[in-house]
Amino acid sequence: MKTLLIYSSLTGNTKKVADAVREVLPENTDFYKIDDSYNVNDYDFITVGFWIDKGNADKKTLEVLKTIKNKKVAYFFTLGAYPNSEHAQKCTETINSILISGGNTLLGHFLCQGKIDSRMTEMFKKFPEGHPHAMTEERKKRHAEAAKHPDESDLNNAKIFFAEIIMKILK
Ligand SMILES: Cc1cc2nc3c(=O)[nH]c(=O)nc-3n(C[C@H](O)[C@H](O)[C@H](O)COP(=O)(O)O)c2cc1C
């Protein structure tokens, strides 16, 4: 089984998860950054890691996701929102529908929070009270929680998740 792991990471959170996932994928897995040179058609099983940008996979990843057809696919992402939020659920649905429309077999996905770039946090502070993007207490709390991730437990959970996927494929 030819296996590919590709990831996109602007500020390093998703890279941490990608490095953890890499440890449990088969030894001969090819590992690339999203904008490196590779051909998704050369692989049977593809794992894609990315970060959430405006409620979707980041742009570079979106382009690649649309080119993956008729493969076994699993994915992971990091985001600022809580993993059990409606926002995270919507992101998952969007990604699933792209991959399903490419005729792919979805093997599952993993997600966890990731520290939000301080420039984003500062930007939110500029919106006036009452604006949908204003820095509310709830948002402050969420950014503070995101700043602790991905932590050791996230990385372990990612490893367990992908090790189980590999077991399923090899069964
Ligand atoms: C420009 C920008 C847009 C973002 N949009 C969202 C978003 O819509 N929803 C969300 O939950 N997090 C959003 N985030 C937070 C990132 O998805 C999160 O911090 C992620 O862990 C970044 O991963 P990276 O360090 O691998 O780049 C955004 C961050 C940036 C910088």
Describe this structure in words.
The chain has 6 helices and 6 strands. By secondary structure, it is of the alpha/beta class. It has 2 domains: 3-114 and 150-170, Rossmann fold (3-Layer(aba) Sandwich), CATH 3.40.50; 115-148, no CATH class. Strands 1, 2, 3, 4, 5 and 6 form a 6-stranded mixed sheet that branches. Helix 1 (13-24) packs parallel to helix 6 (152-170). The longest helix is centred in the C-terminal third of the chain and has 19 residues, at 152-170. It is elongated. The chain starts with a strand and ends with a helix. The model has no long low-confidence stretch (mean pLDDT 97). Residues 9-14, 51-55, 78-81, 87, 114-117, 120 line the site of flavin mononucleotide (FMN). Residues 9-14, 51-55, 78-81, 87, 114-117, 120 line the site of flavin mononucleotide.
How would you summarize the topology of this molecule?
Elements: E1 3-7, H1 13-24, E2 30-33, E3 45-53, E4 56-57, H2 59-65, E5 72-79, H3 86-101, E6 105-113, H4 118-126, H5 137-146, H6 152-170
Parallel strand pairs: 1-2, 1-3, 3-5, 5-6
Antiparallel strand pairs: 3-4
Helix pairs in contact: 1-6
Bound molecules: flavin mononucleotide.
The site of flavin mononucleotide (FMN) has 21 residues, from helix 1, strand 3 and strand 5.
